Amino acid sequence: VVENEIQARIDNIFSNLERLEILSSKEPPNKRQNAKLRVDQLKYDVQHLQTALRNFQHRRYLREQQERQREELLARTFTTNDSDTTIPIDETLQFNESLQSAHRGMDELIGSGTNILQGLRDQRVTLKGTHKKILDVANMLGLSNTVMRLIEKRAFQDKFLMLGGMAVTCLIMFLVVQYLT
């Protein structure tokens, strides 16, 4: 009852402060800053009172909860075959199976990454051979040096793109390992 009365008074103070803030904005400009500062200080003080009331209510609630739990514990009768003494084997078994499946998934992911890396190596060899053949054909056709430089620049950019893709793939694999284990 007292807490509710205090809360009602704090709410009343807040509403009065809102009206006071409106009135302070109507003060002459030379007094307005000082009046606004005083209203803000009052709001700050009332917020501290509100926080103190909440802390008191929280401590009272915790105290009541502890007393209730203490009474439940004292009123409880223990038997030799109480159901609370069972060991949760099923949960542990499910957790172990989950870990095993995550381990298998990681092995499959690493195998897939190895296959992708081997495929990229094979493509590199193929592209090198193709690049060499293109250069031979270009020399035979007499392409200009500018076109040749553009092709080499593009190959250089593609190399960085491939390295970036490999780095992102490794990063994703690392993050999957970190968060799934």
TrEMBL record:
Q: Which domain of life is it from?
A: Eukaryota
* InterPro entries in the cross-refs: GOSR2/Membrin/Bos1
Q: What transmembrane ranges does the database entry give?
A: 160-180
The UniProt entry's GO CC annotations, sorted and at most eight, read:
endoplasmic reticulum membrane; ER to Golgi transport vesicle membrane; Golgi apparatus; late endosome membrane; SNARE complex
**Which keywords does this Swiss-Prot/TrEMBL entry list?**
Acetylation, Coiled coil, Endoplasmic reticulum, Golgi apparatus, Membrane, Protein transport, Transmembrane, Transmembrane helix, Transport
Its predominant location is endoplasmic reticulum
Q: Name one GO biological process term.
A: protein transport
Query: What is its subcellular localisation?
Result: Endoplasmic reticulum membrane; Golgi apparatus, cis-Golgi network membrane
Q: How does it sit in the membrane?
A: Single-pass type IV membrane protein
GO molecular function per UniProt: SNAP receptor activity; SNARE binding
Is Ubl conjugation included in the keywords of this UniProt record? Answer: no
Family label: Belongs to the GOSR2 family.
What biological function has been recorded for the protein in this entry?
A: Involved in transport of proteins from the cis/medial-Golgi to the trans-Golgi network.
The identity of this protein, by name, is Golgi SNAP receptor complex member 2
**Source species:** Panurus biarmicus
- Name of the encoding gene: Gosr2
